[in-house]
Amino acid sequence: MEHRTLSSWMEEPFEMHQSEVALLHQQIELQLEAMRRGMSGFATGKARHAFIRAQMDRVGECQDALATYVGEGVANQVICSLYVEVMEREQ
Questions:
Q1: Smallest Cα–Cα separation from 20: which of 82, 76, 74, 70?
Q2: What pLDDT digit, counting tens, does each position of 26-83 carry?
Q3: Would you list the domain boundaries of the chain?
Q4: 30, CA 20 to 30 Å: which among 45, 53, 83, 85?
Q5: Using an 8 Å Cβ cutoff, are 2 and 56 in contact?
Q6: 50 CB contacts (<8 Å, ≥6 apart)?
Q7: What is the per-residue DSSP string for 10-63?
Q8: DSSP for residue 79
Q9: CA distance readout (Å), 29 to 21, 50, 65, 83, 87
Q10: Is residue 7 within 8 Å of 15, Cβ to Cβ?
């Protein structure tokens, strides 16, 4: 049986949270990228609106999950900065 120090037990959840935050960050970026591409795609009308709305809903779910790790204010800042970054990318 492996003996671990208290600090090693405390670091594990922190590292796990970092991984979760990184995954959420990546997922948010992917959803925003899909939304950006959907805005310039061939779909029109209700189909385009439904697609973009679905991406926005997924971003919102990820934002809520992110807020549990970093707080609502930081999660809002992450979303805003990623949105600007992704929407300003060259196509």
A1: 70
A2: 999 999 998 988 887 766 677 788 888 999 999 999 999 999 989 999 999 999 999 9
A3: 6-87
A4: 45
A5: no
A6: none
A7: HHHHHHHHHHHHHHHHHHHHHHHHHHHHHHTSS--HHHHHHHHHHHHHHHHHHH
A8: H
A9: 12, 19, 14, 8, 10
A10: no
Task: Identify residue 26 by its one-letter amino acid code.
Answer: Q
Region class of 89: left (phi > 0), else alpha (psi between -120 and 50), else beta:
beta
pTM: 0.73
- Provide the Cα torsion 19, 52, 75, 77; round to 10°: 120
Joined tokens for residue 73? 């204010």
Residue corresponding to tokens 């549990």: 68
Structure tokens given for 44: 């029109």
